[in-house]
Amino acid sequence: MLKFIFWTLLSINAALLAYGQGLLGKVSGGEHEPARMKNQLNADQLVLISASAASKAALPAPTPAPAAAPGAALVPEPAPVLACVEFANVAQADARRVEALLAPLALGERQSRESVPTQEVTSHIVYIPSQGSKEGAERKANELKNLGITNYFIMNEPTAMKWGISLGVFKSEAAAQTLLAALNRQGVVSARVAGRGSQSAKLTYRLRGLDPETRARVDAIANRLPPHDTRSCKQAAKSA
Description:
The chain has 240 residues and is α+β, with helices and mostly antiparallel strands. It is 36% helix and 24% strand. It has a six-stranded antiparallel beta sheet with strand order 3-4-2-5-1-6. It starts with a helix and ends with a helix.
């Protein structure tokens, strides 16, 4: 009796296991495993793949880089700062030497030379500006006499100082300023001090569009040039 019960329970469990695995099909459809395979869509297109291929297929697709928003402007690379340098007050006699030092830079049209009239000051004059005519100069001379000043000279040369009055010429500016101060104490308030000398010309070399590397080479050349004034073109524009 016990054997019968054991085999009965074992048969029932086996039947339940087979039904749970789908080997007996559905109760309503009477299906079993071969019938289910026939009813699957495109069963003939199933392909067996290896485990490594299956793992690669399971990896998520790489996320594409976000595209730039429509109309968004791209920020350009900053342009290098370009400099402009001048070598001013170069003597005419030094022109060949200066240009030989600048030649390796090969600046072409970015290099220019300008001749600037200058005055070589050799003395300083204390004077009263032009009175416009001989009569005006003589009236001013009489005023000086009334102040007790007799050391003067009416200038009649064809210059900008014609019909002015010279009160003294000095080699140093300090001496000229000393006389001017004394004349002011005596009541002469229209007197001035000016430099005198021969007219000449100095050269100015302008170097434009210099990138940082070329600017460094220019600075090195500046230390080898004859006496001159190095300045930026902006400084030159402000002083003009």
